[in-house]
Design a protein that fits this description.
heterodimer, A: alpha/beta, TIM Barrel, 12 helices, 46% helix, globular, B: alpha/beta, 4-stranded parallel beta sheet
């Protein structure tokens, strides 16, 4: 298996005996020009890897916070070229980055072309929350050809029989959805997450990152105890939404990142 | 090792050519597998089939009759036209066929709660009805825009004991109601069945919903042979998601001499971009868990659809329709709002039958096809629903003060 900046990151964080902090932001949010500033603030605050969302009109895996951010981004006119521009700007900062996208924008762009453009922008891989492994033949080939990681989401409801079918298709890391539900901040991290990570580990040696519902340092610390990565999305977006201007947004995002990056150290 | 080798492709059903399949969050796979198993078991279980048939006989009012509409047909080049009267079913449309089937499956799976999406409200009303009959909790998601267009149906659902949740995301119509229902399902999948109302969505929905609506075509084919003495030259239906069309067509697919013609919602005209004619004006893509024709832009974002008919106002279509189109077995044409409303008025005034505006698209299509085929032709139309729910929209359209 080829290595990517993302797979290198997990070797590095493992050596430091900590989890990686992964921050999510939709491209084009709050504006096409300002999303790179928010990402720079995340990185300054200590985020290890960036997940760039490709805003989509029908995001069935997302709760209200990300839905609203995606809707705002689409109103700004965000398209594929903006996603790849942001990817290039992000990877220039020296952090690994992936795109998280529903499947239709990839299919529309062209499956091979999408993998190639992502690679050209320095991207490490793609998280595909609605691409089932049964439908993944073309994507497996395209991601292989461009040497990028393909990251699938595993859910608490994924059966024992099915688990290895999904995890064997992943590279870079495996995305463990902490609970049955959509994205968004929660008061506590679901108890299902620890058990799910253990089940994943019995089928794969890949790093496992936990997403859905993590919003503060205490939760990040709890998850870092058993996972290799902690994914935070809605909490960053909320900081931006609650700010009056981009300067305040970046300051608040930087602060949250600092706090979370303390959390992921065991 | 080639990791692909670990997946048994032969076990993956639910494709129609390159269409269909499953494009859903992993969290739903278990529930879809459970549903597929329950459907397959029920399909070959005589006791399930007998229970459903008895419900249809004593509750739905099946078989629905066929009616020849001679005065209407005078405007269609003299062709003989027959309506399959799904409007006479309990709750006023074909939707009840699928709803009763899925509600029985819900009970078999041991689930106590159903959720549904609705556009015009017909599927929501049918779902609320089945939930009341079978003692299930029912939540219906409906675009806020549609709750205004179809206020009467919102009241009906509430009277039947369902909770109606107005959806304020996106375009606030049917597609957004489906998104919200899928989010609910991802969260509550252990206790909840998503009673999807059309032949779209991830496998097994397109096949299963079709199977529950096949009764329309099975009856109609027998009725045409018994009462008219031959099969029709064409079977016509409106197509939004496409459930009534696939239901009446499916038993005719092997009858090579029978044309299958679907009428999509042309809105203000396909050329204006304000329409819901997905096959006529869309392109292959993925929406709501299935690969099919989609109204989408260059970035793969779904484009909002437009139609005077809330029930056809959907930017996708069932994957089997995409397939039937591509292989040339079925034809699809667009009918604009104005053409549909003219046919709505014509059937009301010549036959004393007020059709649903959805159905009026197929009736408008019959006026065109009848003239194309001439006086010897026999047309069968799926008269999928009654127009009571559309009185307000129609009154507004025709300038009748309320």
């Amino acid at each position: 298996m080829y290595s990517t900046p993302l797979s290198e990151l997990f070797i590095h964080t493992k050596a430091e005996n900590r989890a990686a902090l992964i921050g999510y932001l939709p491209a084009g949010f709050p504006t096409i020009a300002d999303s790179s500033k928010v990402i720079a603030a995340m990185v300054e605050g200590g985020v290890d890897a960036i997940e760039i969302g490709f805003p989509y009109s029908d995001p069935v895996m997302d709760g209200p916070v990300i839905q609203n951010a995606a809707e705002q981004s689409l109103k700004n006119g965000t398209g594929a070229s903006d996603v790849f521009d942001l990817m290039a700007a992000t990877t220039k900062l020296g952090v690994p980055a992936v795109v998280m996208t529903y499947w239709n924008p990839i299919e529309r762009y062209g499956v091979e072309a999408f993998a190639q453009s992502l690679k050209a922008a320095g991207g490490s891989g793609v998280i595909t929350p609605d691409l089932t492994v049964e439908e993944s033949t073309q994507w497996s080939q395209a991601s292989q050809d461009s040497q990028i990681n393909r990251i699938y989401v595993v859910a608490p409801s994924t059966s024992e029989a099915r688990m290895p079918l999904v995890t064997s298709q992943c590279s870079g890391f495996i995305y463990a959805a902490s609970l049955m539900g959509v994205t968004g901040t929660r008061n506590s991290v679901s108890g299902d997450a620890r058990a799910l990570v253990a089940r994943i580990r019995s089928t794969s040696d890949l790093p496992v990152a936990v997403g859905l519902g993590v919003s503060n340092a205490a939760q990040a610390h709890e998850v870092a105890d058993y996972a290799d990565g902690v994914i935070v999305g809605s909490a960053f977006i909320r900081e931006v939404q609650e700010s009056v201007n981009i300067e305040e947004a970046c300051e608040r995002v930087r602060e949250l990142a600092r706090s979370l990056s303390q959390g992921v150290r065991r | 090792m080639n990791p692909e080798a670990t997946i048994d492709k032969s076990a993956i059903l639910g494709h129609f050519g390159s269409y269909g399949g499953r494009f859903v969050p992993e969290a739903l796979i278990g529930a879809l597998d459970q549903l597929e198993a329950a459907h397959l078991a029920a399909k070959s279980d005589p006791s399930f089939q007998a229970e459903l048939a008895e419900l249809h006989r004593t509750y739905t009012g099946r078989p629905s009759i066929i009616t020849e509409v001679k005065r209407f047909a005078e405007h269609a080049g003299g062709a003989r036209i027959f309506l399959k009267r799904e409007d006479l079913n309990h709750t006023g449309s074909h939707k009840i066929n699928n709803v009763l089937g899925q509600a029985l499956l819900t009970k078999r799976m041991g689930k106590k709660r159903i959720i549904a999406e609705t556009g015009a409200g017909q599927h929501g009303v049918a779902s609320a009805t089945a939930a009341a009959l079978m003692g299930l909790e029912c939540v219906v998601y409906m675009g806020e825009e549609d709750t205004k267009r179809q206020a009467l149906n919102v009241a009906r659902m509430k009277l039947l004991g369902a909770e109606v949740v107005p959806v304020t995301q996106g375009s606030r119509t049917l597609k957004d109601a489906i998104n919200e229902a899928m989010r609910d399902w991802v969260t509550n999948v252990e206790t909840t069945h998503y009673l999807l109302g059309t032949v779209a969505g991830p496998h097994p929905f397109p096949e299963m919903v079709r199977d529950f609506h096949r009764v329309i075509g099975v009856e109609a084919r027998e009725q045409m042979l018994a009462e008219v003495g031959r099969l029709p030259d064409a079977v016509l239906a409106c197509v939004g998601g496409g459930s009534n069309a696939i239901g009446i067509w499916h038993p005719f697919i092997d009858d090579a001499g029978v044309r299958l013609i679907g009428f999509e919602a042309g809105g203000s005209g396909v050329e204006t971009g304000k329409h819901a004619a997905t096959i006529t004006g869309g392109s292959p893509g993925v929406l709501h868990g299935t690969r099919t024709y989609v109204l989408q832009d260059a970035n793969g974002q779904t484009i909002e659809s437009h139609s005077i008919s809330a029930g056809l106002d959907y930017p996708g279509v069932g994957p089997e329709h995409a397939y039937l189109h591509d292989i040339g077995r079925a034809e699809y044409r667009a009918i604009n709002d104005d053409q549909a409303m003219e046919a709505f008025s014509l059937l009301s005034r010549t036959e004393g039958i007020i059709p649903a505006i959805e159905t009026a698209h197929a009736l408008a299509g019959a006026l065109i096809i009848g003239r194309e085929l001439g006086p010897d032709a026999i047309l069968l139309i799926n008269h999928s629903g009654r127009g009571d729910k559309d009185v307000q929209t129609a009154a507004q359209y025709f300038g009748i003060p309320l």
